[in-house]
């Protein structure tokens, strides 16, 4: 039986920028059925990505975490909170895990770390997301961790010539 490599969840660092860009490019190919991005649409430079990481690290209502196996990024989660006083308590997140590393607890670990960070932040009181309504595996994960459906964005995304709905979900404390 093949040994399963251990993963770690850690804060993203500016020197992760190149690997993170590569991760997003891979995800655009691997998971195009679940992401509103086609290959080639992600156009962020290494310097821009470094700035994004630095801003997330400096903000009390933002976060950027990576999942790493043998010094390679295989997953990521980031959230960003509102900039105005009235919306600072809410943060929207996105998560992705490379297909070869799915179903190994990485998504759960990333999201659990994000929820813990948000609750300890002192300012975030709401995490929200949008997920394709037919992404049953992701919806099960979010529901298991306490997220509840809040609404549906009908025909929100055009995928392979067909409009699909997005489900809005949130965790509030």
Briefly summarize what is shown.
By secondary structure, the chain is an alpha+beta fold. The chain is built from 4 helices and 7 strands; from the N terminus they run E-H-H-E-E-E-H-E-H-E-E.
Account of the protein in words:
The chain is globular and about 40 Å long. A seven-stranded mixed beta sheet has the order 1-2-3-4-5-7-6, sandwiched between helices. It is built from four helices and seven strands; from the N terminus they run E-H-H-E-E-E-H-E-H-E-E. It has a domain at 8-124: Gcn5-related N-acetyltransferase (GNAT) (Aminopeptidase, 3-Layer(aba) Sandwich). With 173 residues, it is of the alpha+beta class.
Main attributes of the structure:
29% helix; 7 strands; seven-stranded mixed β-sheet; Aminopeptidase; alpha+beta; 173 residues; single chain
Give a topology summary:
Layout: E1 8-11, H1 17-30, H2 46-58, E2 62-69, E3 72-81, E4 90-97, H3 106-120, E5 126-132, H4 136-144, E6 148-159, E7 162-172
Parallel strand pairs: 4-5
Antiparallel strand pairs: 1-2, 2-3, 3-4, 5-7, 6-7
Helix pairs in contact: 1-2
Q: Which architecture of the domain at 8-124 per CATH? A: 3-Layer(aba) Sandwich
- Summing up helix and strand content along with how strands pair, one would put the structural category as alpha+beta
Number of helices: 4
**CATH topology description of the domain at 8-124:** Aminopeptidase
Unreliable segments of 5+ consecutive residues: none
User: In terms of quaternary structure, what is this?
Assistant: single chain
User: Major beta sheet, specifics?
Assistant: 7 strands, mixed
- What is the number of E strands? 7
Return the average pLDDT rounded to an integer: 92
Query: What string, H for helix and E for strand, traces the elements in order?
Result: EHHEEEHEHEE
Strand order of the largest sheet: 1-2-3-4-5-7-6
What is the gyration radius calculated from CA atoms? Answer: 16 Å
Determine the fraction of residues in helical runs and give it as a percent range: 25-40%
The level 1 CATH classification of the domain at 8-124 is Alpha Beta
- Find the CATH superfamily of the domain at 8-124: Gcn5-related N-acetyltransferase (GNAT)
Q: How much of the residues is beta strand, in percent?
A: 25-35%
Molecular shape = globular
């Amino acid at each position: 039986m093949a040994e399963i490599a251990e993963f770690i969840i850690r804060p993203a660092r500016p020197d992760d920028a190149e690997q993170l860009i590569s991760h997003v490019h891979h995800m655009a190919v691997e998971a195009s059925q679940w992401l509103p991005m086609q290959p080639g649409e992600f156009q962020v430079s290494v310097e821009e990505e470094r700035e994004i990481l630095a801003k997330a690290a400096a903000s009390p209502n933002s976060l950027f975490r990576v999942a790493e196996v043998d010094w390679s990024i295989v997953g990521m989660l980031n959230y960003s909170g509102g900039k105005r006083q009235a919306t600072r308590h809410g943060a929207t997140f996105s998560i992705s895990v490379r297909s070869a590393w799915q179903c190994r607890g990485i998504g759960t670990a990333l999201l659990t770390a994000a929820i813990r960070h948000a609750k300890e932040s002192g300012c975030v009181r709401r995490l929200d997301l949008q997920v394709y309504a037919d992404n049953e595996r992701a919806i099960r994960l979010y529901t298991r961790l306490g997220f509840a459906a809040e609404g549906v964005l009908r025909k929100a995304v055009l995928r392979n010539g067909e409009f699909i709905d997005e489900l809005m979900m949130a965790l509030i404390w």
